[in-house]
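User: My collaborator sent over this chain with a note saying "see what the structure looks like." That's all I know about it. Can you take a look?
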Amino acid sequence: MKASSSFSNTFMGLFEFSTLVYHTVVNNVRKSKRSAVQALLLEVLQASMMVIFFYFMIQFLGMRSFAVRGSFVLYVMSGVFLYMTHNKSISAVSSGSATNPMLKHAPITTLMMIVSGALTALYIQVLAIIVIAFIANVLIDPFTVYNLKLMALCLLLAWGSGIAIGLVFLSVNPYMPETMKVVNKVYLRANMIFSGKMVLANTIPSYTLPYFTWNPLFHTIDQARGAAFVNYTAHRTDLMYPVYVICVLVVLGLMLEHWSRKYVSESWAAGR
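Assistant: Without extra context I'll predict from the sequence alone. Here is the result:
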């Protein structure tokens, strides 16, 4: 009886948590726009502009020769989609705060805010990816993804590594808010180059490769291109590296966040 009661309580707790996360995700999607459709259209437009920008940028810089033989549109999208998912998850998680007014409501917890922010970013990005990929495949350049399951796994790893990094930023932010704003911006700007979305890892000279390999996003993008194209094998990146980074940073971020939640003062936020 005790085991049955414990299982029932656990199930009800998970159900209540999932329900609250769902409503929080809906609130996050709609808080900046009147409807979820407007939020989705905005993300589709932003992602489309990013794809178009890098398409013509690579063409202009003469870097198309470094691309994989196959659909050039797929080559650009495989980098841009993972790049945007990674950065959006960082922004969604790191924008929280231990002094968030929502945390004053009893059912809302910091973990719930983190989970809902991360799921909101993933939900919007996946919908935007589906819409843009469909339009590109039908109207521009028909393409086929060689290993769709591995491609989806790489997308989830890009999302997960963004969550882990955003969690560390969130945890440190109460102690040095101005510094963390700069660090956040520097990291996002550095990803423009060191994410590898414009080049292939196999074509990067050995003496410059260490400037890229520290970045988990670089590994996921290169592995995603190995999954997208049948004639490209990712030799210089490892899919386990972002997994290790996620595990280490999530544990570190949760420890720091727990410490911050215990000792942070609302007057810190008020004094900024």
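A starting point for your reply to your collaborator: The mean pLDDT is 76.
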